[in-house]
């Protein structure tokens, strides 16, 4: 077997964990099952991660980080919040469409972590990361005139709306996801940003 750098092997295990969790649930995501899905020896998983919980934590946090990085590439600094809201929501919607397995795994891991006091902090940390990441993107978009807008509230509302839309899409599998996101975009733009000045 050819040598695989530790960072690459670690990512293989994280991707395999996401795949197993999204299709079989957290309970069946044993270290052996994850290693099998990665096509690697179980011993090499324990070289990268000390415990199963560390693998689950990495899978949980990787989905969040990947999504924020992808959305961030669509954001133009200083574009203004009205346009920024659209780019952030559209970026998340596109990434979610491309990676439904990550969304399934994220929801599985959220419920799993909330059931135990010892792991509850993981759900809190991941949601805080989503909110803080979205908040930073909105700050980058902000232009003169946007100073009085509560960006923390806006970021939390964006994440809340996306959660609702994603759960409906995963459950129903219909084609209204983008239309719902478009509608939410317009509602948030009208709620949180002033309308452009009329031109004579």
Spell out the key features of this protein.
200 residues; mainly alpha; Tetracycline Repressor, domain 2; 0% strand
Concise synopsis of the structure shown:
The protein contains nine helices and no strands. It is mostly helical and 200 residues long. The chain has one domain: Tetracycline Repressor, domain 2 (Orthogonal Bundle).
User: Could you name the CATH class?
Assistant: Mainly Alpha
Low-confidence stretches: none
Give the CA-based shape.
elongated
Structural class: mainly alpha
Distance between the termini: 71 Å
Strand content: under 5%
String of helices and strands:
HHHHHHHHH
Give me the Rg, rounded.
19 Å
> Superfamily at the CATH H level?
Tetracycline Repressor, domain 2
Count of individual helical segments: 9
In the residues, how many domains can be counted?
1
- Secondary structure: helix percent: over 70%
Number of strands: 0
Proper CATH architecture: Orthogonal Bundle
Describe what this molecule looks like in 3D:
30% of the residues are buried. Helix content is 74%, strand content 0%. α8 runs antiparallel to α9. The chain has a single domain, classed as Orthogonal Bundle (Tetracycline Repressor, domain 2), CATH 1.10.357. The radius of gyration is 19 Å and the shape is elongated. The protein contains 9 helices and no strands. By secondary structure, the protein is mainly alpha-helical.
């Amino acid at each position: 077997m050819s040598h695989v750098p530790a960072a690459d092997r670690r990512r293989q295990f994280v991707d395999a964990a996401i795949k197993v969790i999204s299709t079989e649930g957290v309970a069946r995501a044993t270290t052996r099952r994850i290693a099998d899905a990665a096509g690697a020896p179980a011993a090499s998983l324990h070289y990268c991660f000390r415990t199963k919980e560390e693998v689950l934590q990495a899978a949980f946090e990787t989905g969040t980080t990947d999504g924020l990085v992808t959305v961030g590439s669509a954001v133009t600094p200083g574009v203004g919040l009205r346009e920024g809201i659209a780019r952030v929501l559209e970026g998340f919607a596109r990434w979610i469409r491309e990676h439904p397995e990550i969304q399934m795994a994220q929801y599985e891991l959220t419920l799993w972590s909330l059931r135990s006091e010892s792991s509850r902090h993981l759900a809190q940390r991941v949601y805080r990361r989503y909110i803080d990441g979205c908040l930073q993107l909105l700050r980058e978009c902000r232009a003169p005139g946007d100073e009085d807008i509560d960006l923390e509230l806006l970021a939390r509302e964006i994440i809340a709306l996306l959660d609702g839309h994603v759960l409906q899409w995963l459950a129903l599998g219909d084609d209204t996801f983008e239309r719902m996101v478009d509608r939410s975009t317009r509602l948030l733009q009208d709620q949180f940003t002033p309308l452009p000045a009329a031109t004579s």
